[in-house]
Amino acid sequence: MPRDNYGAILHHLGEETLPLNAVSPPIFQTSNFCFPSFEELRAAVNDELGHCLYTRGNNPTVNLAEVKLAALEKGEKAKLLGSGAAAITNSVMAFVKAGDHIVCVRDAYTWMGKLASSYLPRFGVECSFVEGTDIAEIEAAIRVNTRLIYLESPTSMTFKLQDLSAVASLARSRGIRTITDNTWATPYFCNPLELGVDVVVHSGSKYLGGCSDIIAGVVVGNKEDVERIIQQESLQMGSVADPFMAWLMLRGLRTFHLRMPAHFRSAMDVSRFLESHGKVAQVLYPFLDSHPQAELAKRQFRGGSGLLSIRLDTADIRRVARFVDSLTLFKRAVSWGGYESLVFPSAASYASANEVPKDRAGLVRLHIGLEESEALIADLDQALSKM
Q1: Domain residues of the chain, as ranges?
Q2: pTM of the full predicted structure?
Q3: How many CB atoms neighbour CB 290 within 10 A?
Q4: CATH class of segment(s) 6-253
Q5: Class at the top of the CATH hierarchy for domain 256-385
Q6: Which of 117, 76, 60, 22 is nearest to 224 (CA)?
Q7: pLDDT of residue 141
Q8: Active-site residue list
Q9: DSSP per residue over 273-291, as a string?
Q10: CB-CB contact of 347 with 361 (8 Å)
Q11: Which segments of the chain have a pLDDT < 50?
């Protein structure tokens, strides 16, 4: 379980000199900053990373959130961006060029998959996809021009883990960079930088915000790597973090250390119930003993979040839809990581039932929110009975 004094980070770090001794950080909702002299303006223009010049680069509200995010992930520097997709894209593109090759886990977040399979090839960057569960498979995919290995442990929807420490060690021995998406585990349950990974990315829209009211992305790493991402990509692409969004994230972070163990406890309760239910063929949650990588999960993570998947005992989309539509406490929606419980059937990703692969037909993702687990179990039970 967590080892840190989260209250010190989330409630105090970086807030020692708030204007007028404010208890809650003010929102610097400004696009521009002015200077009292020519020389001070010139200094800022020529050192944008070290000054508040224009909110595309620096803003006091955004910077305060970044200080806390870097401390949570045990990194030297963090950059808050406009979305998780921006965090992924900026980080990947900072380390590759035409003629390079990357290795990516197959079931990573949708937009990473599209970046690797259709966007980067336009600029001469090739990608090999791997399951990621076997270090030998990853090693076999490496080429002489491989510059980056992209990880997501566990993967979206299918919850396959990679051994982050082992992959990071392999990559460093070959001079290859590693990036991992840590949105599921969050810094509360895992710190990939301590395991040797170079850069960590997050969808800040999920657990870091925690209230389903922001779109945000986060990049964390050492100072040199993060500043490279800022200078080469985010300033150029304009992946701006709005000050009000940063303030909402700061507000959500106040309860981060209280929310995450609650999600974990409820996810375990719900997972155990579902595992015993006759209409559920499989529960995909890394901390269940039945998960094929449970030992790795216990070694790599200090706990788990509220996201899991189930495979219903049917490939009939009508029965899947009946189950999904019968739920009353689970909202039918994409995304996850907020206070509310959500359900997303994999089949909804396809325009028609005929397009749904057989292994995806009964696959349903559940986000276990902060409602009482007993109520969520009762809701799932009654919906399964109507399937």
Answers
A1: 6-253, 256-385
A2: 0.95
A3: 11
A4: alpha beta
A5: alpha beta
A6: 76
A7: 98
A8: 56, 109, 181, 206
A9: HHHT-TTEEEEE-TTSTTS
A10: yes
A11: none
